[in-house]
Amino acid sequence: MAAHSKVFLLLSISCAILQISLSGDPDILSDFILPPVFFGPLDGNFFTFTGMRSLVGTPFPKSFKVSKATMAEFPALNGQSVSYAVLQFPADGSVNPPHTHPRASELLFVLMGSLQVGFVDTTNKLFTQTLQQGDIFVFPKGLVHFQFNCDAKNPALALSAFGSASAGTVSVPNSVFNTTIDDKVLALSFKTDVATIQKIKSGLSG
Ligand SMILES: *[C@@H]1O[C@H](CO)[C@@H](O)[C@H](O)[C@H]1NC(C)=O
């Protein structure tokens, strides 16, 4: 290969990598996207999500609860590269188990109470923090993270914003121990026996 074509190849590869690392959701070529089946009328209602009204004035849930406003619940988000989740943590030990969002960074805003949060980077280093009401924490895209309310008396409420209309969630406990991956594979991977794997699995199934 001639020297100049090698340089060109290298340049195109670096551009492609840069493109991948800069991109979030794909850019759209119109102001907004209507669902394939839409009966209208097209007005402010299409751009309004009222699903969170059900949280106002209702008693706090008894276990950890996520309420989402992603493209699935709110079709107007398609192509807009943003979404929300409201996270409710009752007092005394409620946890949002370790998980990742493959398609977005997450910006978590503690509106009420306090939360212990953390994420693990690709070198397995844990970054953790105890957040107070009013604090904002960022979970980098794709990294394993969790939130925990260890306050014995007070519930915690947080609002998470995502840089994707469909961030996706991969739960670590579920994706490892609540699928049909062979017990033997898991036993070998976790350097333990099949009985231990089955014990963990039985806690998650059903
Ligand atoms: C495990 O998977 C089953 C079937 O998909 C589901 O019903 C159950 O809620 C999952 N367990 C947990 C802890 O999410």
From TrEMBL:
<dbReference type="GO" id="GO:0030145">
    <property type="term" value="F:manganese ion binding"/>
</dbReference>
<comment type="subunit">
    <text>Oligomer (believed to be a pentamer but probably hexamer).</text>
</comment>
<keyword id="KW-0052">Apoplast</keyword>
<dbReference type="InterPro" id="IPR011051">
    <property type="entry name" value="RmlC_Cupin_sf"/>
</dbReference>
<dbReference type="InterPro" id="IPR001929">
    <property type="entry name" value="Germin"/>
</dbReference>
<feature type="binding site">
    <location>
        <position position="96"/>
    </location>
    <ligand>
        <name>oxalate</name>
    </ligand>
</feature>
<feature type="binding site">
    <location>
        <position position="101"/>
    </location>
    <ligand>
        <name>Mn(2+)</name>
    </ligand>
</feature>
<keyword id="KW-0964">Secreted</keyword>
<feature type="binding site">
    <location>
        <position position="106"/>
    </location>
    <ligand>
        <name>Mn(2+)</name>
    </ligand>
</feature>
<feature type="binding site">
    <location>
        <position position="99"/>
    </location>
    <ligand>
        <name>Mn(2+)</name>
    </ligand>
</feature>
<feature type="binding site">
    <location>
        <position position="106"/>
    </location>
    <ligand>
        <name>oxalate</name>
    </ligand>
</feature>
<dbReference type="InterPro" id="IPR014710">
    <property type="entry name" value="RmlC-like_jellyroll"/>
</dbReference>
<feature type="binding site">
    <location>
        <position position="145"/>
    </location>
    <ligand>
        <name>Mn(2+)</name>
    </ligand>
</feature>
<dbReference type="GO" id="GO:0048046">
    <property type="term" value="C:apoplast"/>
</dbReference>
<dbReference type="InterPro" id="IPR006045">
    <property type="entry name" value="Cupin_1"/>
</dbReference>
<keyword id="KW-0325">Glycoprotein</keyword>
<feature type="signal peptide">
    <location>
        <begin position="1"/>
        <end position="23"/>
    </location>
</feature>
<dbReference type="Pfam" id="PF00190">
    <property type="entry name" value="Cupin_1"/>
</dbReference>
<keyword id="KW-0479">Metal-binding</keyword>
<protein>
    <recommendedName>
        <fullName>Germin-like protein</fullName>
    </recommendedName>
</protein>
<feature type="domain" description="Cupin type-1">
    <location>
        <begin position="53"/>
        <end position="198"/>
    </location>
</feature>
<comment type="function">
    <text>May play a role in plant defense. Probably has no oxalate oxidase activity even if the active site is conserved.</text>
</comment>
<comment type="similarity">
    <text>Belongs to the germin family.</text>
</comment>
<feature type="binding site">
    <location>
        <position position="101"/>
    </location>
    <ligand>
        <name>oxalate</name>
    </ligand>
</feature>
<keyword id="KW-0464">Manganese</keyword>
<keyword id="KW-0732">Signal</keyword>
